[in-house]
Structures are given as structure tokens and as C-alpha cells.
Amino acid sequence: AQTVTQSQPEMSVQEAETVTLSCTYDTSENNYYLFWYKQPPSRQMILVIRQEAYKQQNATENRFSVNFQKAAKSFSLKISDSQLGDTAMYFCAFMKLGGSARQLTFGSGTQLTVLP
Amino acid sequence: DAGITQSPRHKVTETGTPVTLRCHQTENHRYMYWYRQDPGHGLRLIHYSYGVKDTDKGEVSDGYSVSRSKTEDFLLTLESATSSQTSVYFCAISARDSLAYEQYFGPGTRLTVT
Questions:
Q1: Radius of gyration of chain A (CA)
Q2: Do A103 and B48 touch (CB under 8 A)?
Q3: Running DSSP on this structure, what letter comes out for residue B32?
Q4: Mean pLDDT for back-to-back runs of 10 residues, chain B (114 residues)
Q5: Residues 6+ apart with CB under 8 A from A100
Q6: CB contact at 8 A, A110 and A12
Q7: 3-state class of A84 per DSSP?
Q8: How many other C-beta atoms are found inside a 10 Å radius of the C-beta of residue A112?
Q9: Interface of B with A in 38-77 (CB under 8 A)
């Protein structure tokens, strides 16, 4: 079974600054995907970024980028130029490839507050 | 917008009553999922479906059943609701033609069992 750990329950950052959210995972699988989801106060789950385990290059989506360290089983999210709208709960998630399920295993989340 | 709706959006029910939550999608996706979200646990998979009449259990399936009689609808049933099933329930789909395996979520249903 896979486990995903987010060790920072809460974080805050000043507007326009950079913040990094941590995520580690435990798996014996070699082929998998990793995701970051954002959940603002509206409760909607929004996909932020994904990373394929077979790719060495770190994924980037505008102000969001990841630092993927496969050997260390670490998958951190960096948010640059933080904006007030980035205030949300952020979830790291793991998906094993193969089989019929395509199941996501989530971490417990990090509440990020962007301060004006 | 992945075309996912959930109904009802909010429900309060009493212990021991049956409850059915509905997930509806408009884009013919093969995979559908039900998750529950509780403080300190993130989202946990209850059941999933990989086609009409094809379903399987997830991590926290006890006390829940599902049905999928047509592609667009995935129903989650609590046969006899308990207070421990008070939660926010999310439906998700995995795009049929996506090679990237993303899951897209509905707006959620807040269920309170008194």
C-alpha cells in the first residue's frame, strides 16, 4: 500500500513571496504519477500540477513548480509570487499505474494562508 | 469544467436512515470515483467504477454500496447511516482519453448524520 505524508499542517507566506510545501510518499512501485491539488474555501478540488515518475524534468505550471526527488520519494510544491487567491488547502496525491483502478492516495493536506 | 454534478449538495439525515448520493457526468468518462473528506485525513477512496456495472471497493468501503447502471451516473448509498459517516463526499472522474490520468472532482456533498 502507498502512503503520502504532508508534515506541515499549516503554513503562511507574505503576498509576492515564495513558499514551498513538502510531501513525501512511500511506495514499492516504479511507475506512478504524483499530483498537487488545491482546495480553496469554495471546497472545489482543483488540479494544480502533475508529475510522471519516469520523467526526470520537474513539472512547471506558471507560478507553480515541483521538486521531484524520486530516490528520496519527495515531491514538494513551490509557489512563486504568492497571491491572495492562493490561500487554500493543498493536497499531495499518488497514483499507481497499471490495473483497473487509477486510484489516488492523498496526504492529509497543508493549509496555506497568503498574508497581504 | 469536467461536467460533473453532485446531488444533493447538502443533506441532514438521522441515524439509521438510508441515503443515496448521486454523481452525474456529461462527457462519457469511463472511470468514476467516490471519496470522503474528513479533517486530518485528506480524501479517502470509498468505491470506484471502471465501466457500467463494473465497480470495486476502495480504502473505506464498509457501510457503503455503489451502483452504475449507465455511464453518466454513479450512485453512492449508505444503507443505514451512522454518525461516523458525517463527512463531505466527492465524486471524481478520470478522463477516458487522457494519457495523464488526472482526476477531476465534482463540487462535493456535505452530509450530516444526526
A1: 14
A2: yes
A3: E
A4: 88 97 92 93 92 92 96 96 97 74 92 97
A5: B50, B54, B56
A6: no
A7: helix
A8: 21
A9: 40-45, 48, 50, 54, 56, 58
